[in-house]
């Protein structure tokens, strides 16, 4: 079955201040790279605009209204120290949500074997009631809830290999054993949490990595913590919070992964999805701030997804 790829030009119109790492060029290099010949059979689609009702699967109305009210008519407006919005940011964020929910629909309908969504703003730092860390709405959390509501499944696993801890996803599912949240991340690092002891209702698995860690530590964390947790949980769907800022070139962290590590981790999760989730796998872009590191890592990730 085919690998589907969603993105949308509106996601490049979510603007951030000059010098900000979470910038429109990130999507440009991904789209350029996936235009290369090895990806000729990628099923490319425009991400649809998501519905506000989908946002409300993971956030209260008050949060959605607050984000909407922060959108400026021109220029930039600041939500917190790192998080800004521009006139098109709300539409971009709803498109990131729309891509995520469409991806879930596709793997349940059988339209696609697996799906990668390259949208921005990213989502995993967005808590129930707080936009932060470049994130407005939690796309992965919304996708998980959408799978439960629209497709009637019980258990969804979210595996987050972004180099930062996904505090938002952890916050949203802290007391919800129907969603497994597993994260590898550098610690200490923004946003500060993600210790092994943070286990929620037994559904949170944090695998922190020391600064300077590389492939061995990452793969060991995956093999000993993440993959066994996914196996025990037996999810109906696996969602990847696919940040690529653990790549060695990334300027925001000190983890030294190579593109091959993302290929490897993707393959491991595809094996689990094949055994446990009827192959259903949805991958959503989170971070990744060195354009070259991002492009080679996404190419490795999507290349593996396409191998089926
Ligand atoms: Zn990150």
Features:
308 residues; alpha/beta; two-stranded antiparallel ribbon; 9 helices; 10 strands; globular; binds zinc ion
Description:
By secondary structure, this protein is an alpha/beta fold. It is 39% helix and 15% strand. The chain contains nine helices and ten strands. The protein has helices at 25-34, 52-55, 61-70, 89-109, 139-151, 167-173, 215-233, 259-276, 291-307, and strands at 3-7, 43-46, 77-78, 84-85, 114-117, 156-160, 179-186, 204-209, 237-242, 281-285. The strands form two sheets. An eight-stranded parallel beta sheet has the order 2-1-5-10-9-6-7-8, with helices on both faces. It has a two-stranded antiparallel sheet with strand order 3-4. α4 crosses α5 and α7 runs parallel beside α8 (259-276). The longest helix is centred in the N-terminal third of the chain and has 21 residues, at 89-109. It is globular, with a radius of gyration of 17 Å. It starts with a strand and ends with a helix. Zinc ion binds next to loops.
Low-confidence stretches: none
Give the helix proportion (percent range).
25-40%
Number of helices: 9
Termini gap:
7 Å
Judging from the principal axes of the Cα atoms, what is the shape?
A: globular
Strand order of the largest sheet: 2-1-5-10-9-6-7-8
Radius of gyration: 17 Å
What is the strand content?
15-25%
Present as ligands are: zinc ion
From N to C, what is the helix and strand string?
A: EHEHHEEHEHEHEEHEHEH
Number of strands: 10
Main beta-sheet annotation: 8 strands, parallel
Structural class: alpha/beta
């Amino acid at each position: 079955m085919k690998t589907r790829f969603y993105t949308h030009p509106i996601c490049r119109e979510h603007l951030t201040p000059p010098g900000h790492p979470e910038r429109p060029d990130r999507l440009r290099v991904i789209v350029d790279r996936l235009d290369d010949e090895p990806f000729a059979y990628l099923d490319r689609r425009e991400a649809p605009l998501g519905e506000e009702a989908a946002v409300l699967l993971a956030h209260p109305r008050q949060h959605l209204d607050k984000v909407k009210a922060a959108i400026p008519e021109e220029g930039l407006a600041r939500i917190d120290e790192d998080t800004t919005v521009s006139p098109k940011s709300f539409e971009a964020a709803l498109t990131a949500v729309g891509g995520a929910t469409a991806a879930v629909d596709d793997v349940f309908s059988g339209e696609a074997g697996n799906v990668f969504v390259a949208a921005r703003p990213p989502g995993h730092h967005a808590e129930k009631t707080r936009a932060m860390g470049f994130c407005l709405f939690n796309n992965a959390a919304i996708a998980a809830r959408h799978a439960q509501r629209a497709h009637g499944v019980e258990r969804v696993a979210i595996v987050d290999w972004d180099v930062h801890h996904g505090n938002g996803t952890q916050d949203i599912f802290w007391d919800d054993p129907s969603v497994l949240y597993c994260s590898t991340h550098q610690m200490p690092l923004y946003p500060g949490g993600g210790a092994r002891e943070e286990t929620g209702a037994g559904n949170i698995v944090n695998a922190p990595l020391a600064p300077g860690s590389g492939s061995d530590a990452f793969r060991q964390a995956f093999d000993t913590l993440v993959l066994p947790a996914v196996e025990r949980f037996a999810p109906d769907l696996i969602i990847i919070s696919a940040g690529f800022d653990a790549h060695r070139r990334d300027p925001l962290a000190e983890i030294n992964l190579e593109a091959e590590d993302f290929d490897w981790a993707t393959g491991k999760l595809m094996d689990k999805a094949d055994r446990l989730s009827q192959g259903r796998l949805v991958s959503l872009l989170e971070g990744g701030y060195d354009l070259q590191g991002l492009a080679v890592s996404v190419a490795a990730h999507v290349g593996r997804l396409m191998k089926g």
